[in-house]
Amino acid sequence: MIHVTVYDNEDGQYMGFVFQGHAGFGEAGQDIVCAGVSALLINAVNSVESLAGDAFRYKEHEGEDEVTFFLTSHPVSEKAELLLKSLVLGLQGIEHDYGKQYLKLEIKRKQEV
To answer: Which residue is catalytic, options 34, 61, 74, 96?
Structure first.
């Protein structure tokens, strides 16, 4: 299962996310849930960088099947906020269509910024 935790701040703005695991919906290279989630993740990071211009920290944790992304710009731009809302919307759609056994999404308050 892919577990995604999206973090927001006290104003309800999304600040970042942690992706962990693999969907297990299909064989490696044929897993459409994993492909869809990966496409949303990569597109969100690239879009924030190219279209919003907000500063961020990004790390792929080798061997741990984990990716972390956190905005470091304060305040967060409207563009970055919209792009992260779009990411969450897409993830909610995949979770709804394929089930929580393949993708679990949760939103948490980020304590330290």
So the answer is: 34
Which residue, chain included where needed, has tokens 């924030």?
A: 48
Alpha-carbon gap, residue 28 to 70, rounded angstroms: 28
Report how many domains make up the chain: 1
34 is catalytic: yes
3 carries an active-site annotation? no
Question: Considering only CA atoms, which of 1, 3, 2 is closest in space to residue 107?
Answer: 3
Q: Which member of 3, 22, 61, 74 is catalytic? A: 22
pLDDT tens digits along 52-67:
999 999 999 877 889 9
List the CATH number of the domain containing 85: 3.30.70.1490
- pLDDT of residue 83 exceeding 60, the answer is yes
